[in-house]
UniProtKB/TrEMBL annotation:
PANTHER family: GUANOSINE NUCLEOTIDE DIPHOSPHATE DISSOCIATION INHIBITOR, RAB GDP-DISSOCIATION INHIBITOR. Belongs to the Rab GDI family. GO terms for cellular component: cytoplasm. This is Guanosine nucleotide diphosphate dissociation inhibitor. GO terms for biological process: protein transport; small GTPase-mediated signal transduction; vesicle-mediated transport. InterPro entries: FAD/NAD-bd_sf (IPR036188), GDP_dissociation_inhibitor (IPR018203), RabGDI (IPR000806). SUPFAM superfamilies: FAD-linked reductases, C-terminal domain, FAD/NAD(P)-binding domain. One of its GO terms (molecular function) is Rab GDP-dissociation inhibitor activity. It comes from the Eukaryota.
Amino acid sequence: MDEEYDVIVLGTGLKECILSGLLSVDGLKVLHMDRNDYYGGESTSLYLSQLWKRFRGSDNPPDHLGSTKEYNVDMIPKFMMANGTLVRVLIHTNVTKYLSFKAVDGSFVYNKGKIHKVPANDVEALKSPLMGLFEKRRARKFFIYVQDYDENDPKSHEGVDLNQVTAKELISKYGLDDNTIDFIGHALALHLDDGYLTQPAMDFVKRMKLYAESLARFQGGSPYIYPLYGLGELPQGFARLSAVYGGTYMLNKPECKVEFDESGKVIGVTSKGETAKCKKVVCDPSYLPDKVKKVGKVNRAICIMSHPIPNTHDSPSVQVILPQKQLGRKSDMYVFQILICQ
């Protein structure tokens, strides 16, 4: 370990592993360390015994739940947009050869006390109770505008500068009601709160286009995909990429201390009395707690159920979005359901 590196990366979360992989591909000498004995950091996927040990202090879950290795429980559950940036990075770096993916079966939204499927095609849209007949006609005109919009083609802008008008001003042009706006903004554009309505409409439109492009990519029931064996597979995929290009990995390295010189410039990392020198350190916030500021938190709950979520057509994998207005909250709630893969 007593060597000099271009970059030392601390933590094997998704962001850290992506950076480690890309830096190694770029020819830099990379050392990647983690205090844990597994990859993934906070975004790891755990067997049932590991999950029980983490939250219950014992690695002996109840027998009726089945074999511990039949479970891969994501600590930060997240579906990926099928045409999103992360998927493009996976394809560009060829990390996809280390992974298997599955399309998510359905996308749902909570509205007026009921769960409704987000339409995935024209037939579903016509049958959907989310909008009335006349509202569907108005919404269709808006969807066509979004579909045809090309940032580089002024003819498609219809005289509207999306960098100047707000999302609310753009939507009002089509006369959509509040219920439809709530559905579009949260179930399609995937905004977490209503703050987007007062922001320039460009990001709102790009998010809707991404949803449509992702939905069309696999012709499935939703625009989402996920790693077949859990989200923890993603960090491991990029870790393999880094190793192929010469990156060095060290797990189970406790008390990784970032060393600074008198001027405050980073010079290395010490663990177990050994110091690795470096020019730069990249780490997750937990390795430098005195240099980060906590600005918020996310509450998560893990439920092991014996049945699918009601009113989701018994779909094995779904996402249900509960918009803030429907719950009287400041931000949306997301529910992910993934069936155990046999």
